[in-house]
Structures are given as C-alpha cells and as structure tokens.
Amino acid sequence: SVATSSRLDAIRSVYGVSVARNLMKIEASDSDPSSSVFEMDGFISNSNYIAKKITMVLFINERLVECTALKRAIEIVYAATLPKASKPFIYMSIVLPPEHVDVNVHPTKREVSLLNQEVIIEKIQSVVESKLRNSNEARTFQEQTIQPCPSVPIGTSKDSQLNPSPSGSKSLKVPVHKLVRTDSLDPAGRLHAYLQVKPLSHLERDSGLTAVRSSVRQRRNPKETADLTSIQELISDIDRNCHSGLLDIVRHCTYIGMADDVFALLQIKTHLYLANVVNLSKELMYQQVLRRFSHFNGIQLSDPAPLPELIMLALKEEDLDPECNENDDLKEKIAEMNTELLKQKSEMLDEYFCIHIDILGN
Asked: Where are stretches of biased composition, namely Polar residues (predicted)?
C-alpha cells in the first residue's frame, strides 16, 4: 500500500471502502508476568459488515503471521453474537517479548504459537465480545426504494413479447428463511407463502385419504350466522364496539416475525407495532365461535355410537387401576343418568353443536 498517515487508510486502499467503513478500533493489554505480557491494538468489523469468509490480518512483533487458535476464538465470538451469515474482518497487531513467541510450529515460520496462549486469547475474546455487543445496538440498515411496476408494457417489439420481463423468464426461488414480507396484499406477503408443503407418498395418499373419505361424510351448512337472538346480540355488540383504527391495522398489516414468545412485530406503512398474539388469538377465536355458532360441519358415523358405552369408556379411562371391577355398578348408573340427561337436551345439542342424539341414546 502507499505510505499513508494511518492504518485505517492502508486497510481502505488494500481491502476497499466498504471494509474500512465498518471497522471499530480495539485495544487490549496485560502486564502481569505471572499470567501474560502483551499489548494489542487493531480493528474489527462491526455488526453492519457482511462477508462469506473470515479475513484476519495478524502482525506479531511487526511480522505478518498466522495464529489458528486466535482466529478460531474470534470467529466463535462473532458466531455467538452476530447472525450466522456474517464472517468478520480482523486486523490485529500484537507486541510481546520475543522469547514468548514460538516460530518453529510451521516450516515456513508463518504459523506461530504464543506463551500463555490461552490467557491472551481469552482476554482478546472478552474485549472483542464487549465491543461487538455495543456495536449491535447501533446497527444501521440500508433503505431500498421500490420501483413501481408499470401496468402497461412500454415497448411492443418482438423482443419484448418474447421476454415479457427479466423476472418472468427466470423466477429465482428465495429460500424460506430469507423470505421477507413487503405487502400484505401481495401473494408473496401472505403467511401461507412461508409454509413448506411436504408432498405425500403415493401409499399415504391412497390408503389414508380414501379410507377417511369413505367412512366420514361431511354435512356443509350454507348459513353464515346463527338465528339465535342471544348470539345475534353478542355479534352486534362486537360490531358496535369495533375500533376502526385497530381494524384497519389488523386488515392491512404485514407480519414481520415474533419478537418473543408473546409479542409479534407488525408493519403498517412506515409504522412498526408490537402485537400481543395471545390476546389477539383469544379475541379472534371468540369472534369466530360466535359467527360460526351452531353451523359446524357435522361428522356422520356409519354406525351410530351408543352413549352409555361412550360414557363407560370415559369413566374407565379415569380409573387409576383399570383391572379393578368394584365400581362397575356405580359407573353403569352414572352412564345411565348422563345418557338420560343428554337425551333430554338433544334438541339443544343438535341446534347448537350439530350433535344428533336419537331416542335410543345413540
């Protein structure tokens, strides 16, 4: 490199502006003869720097060398603190007594080993980690402007008809973990775009689905909401107390990701919101139950199941000792009483939950 005023300028001229822009100064030293004696200064890349390969320029006593243990240790710190894709750039100059350096590790004397190497590496590691954690708080993101797609093609030449768009001719498939939602109305921005559908094997598809389809017939109910006055009142109460601003947010939001196990990040235009998923889910389920009340898909069994037998199965399931038959008479009485009760309520069960019970208790 040209003779420059600073090391940072030298790094800029050799490795480029993008590297030099994302470097932080780092220093560490120790003067305790019982543990280690060294002085280190240099530069390490911050959280905004992204590279696929680690670059480490290491000078020990002003000689360009390699120290695999130190390089690996710093790489571990980066892997634990920053995203996996990011590999660091490190420039380090270490000065220590010449007798503490073993240069006979490698025939070319390129690789070196240090006296009290573990202690020195540990101290450098902790300095790098604290510096990285501080830099992570001041992370910056590059803004991208979205070019509006013209709805009408400009050219009508043969070439444009053959290749309507560069993206159309070659659709690049983005890995699932790198998908980013940008628009809630765009198909790529909807949540089902993130679901990976596993293709079923022929055996599973044929045996499983046909068996289920033949034994279970679903009864579709075309009506949207229940005719019950109480349900209608509850639904109108929800509609009356609806917050228009919040409704707009939920309708047009873009899901970013989970912030923790309760809060999700939602983007609306240029605003970012934290949404309590637990509360939202409860409210969603409550409103869905009201709107679908008494209009479930009924499942029809090929042979109607007798209620007394079902209740007996449930009672035996709760037994701590399944082999014990002492309370069988009591269980039969309980099953008989409950069957009668359910038969009395059969009209309500049929209207509310599509559970049909005949006069025989099936």
From this structure: 157-170
What are residue 300's DSSP bridge partners? 217
Rg of the chain, C-alpha, whole Å: 35
For residue 192, the model assigns a pLDDT of 60
Give Cβ neighbours of residue 15 (< 8 Å, ≥ 6 apart). Answer: 55, 89
pLDDT in tens, 35-71: 889 999 999 998 888 888 999 999 999 999 999 999 9
Report which DSSP code applies to 47.
T
Give the model's pLDDT for residue 162. Answer: 45
For the chain, residues with pLDDT lower than 50 are 151-170, 217-222
How far apart (Å, rounded) are the C-alpha atoms in residues 194 and 152?
Answer: 30
Give, as one character, the DSSP assignment of residue 111: B
Of 56, 86, 74, residue with least CA distance to 126: 74
User: Minimal CA–CA distance to 264: which of 248, 243, 278?
Assistant: 278
Bridge-based pairing of strands 263-268 and 271-276 is antiparallel
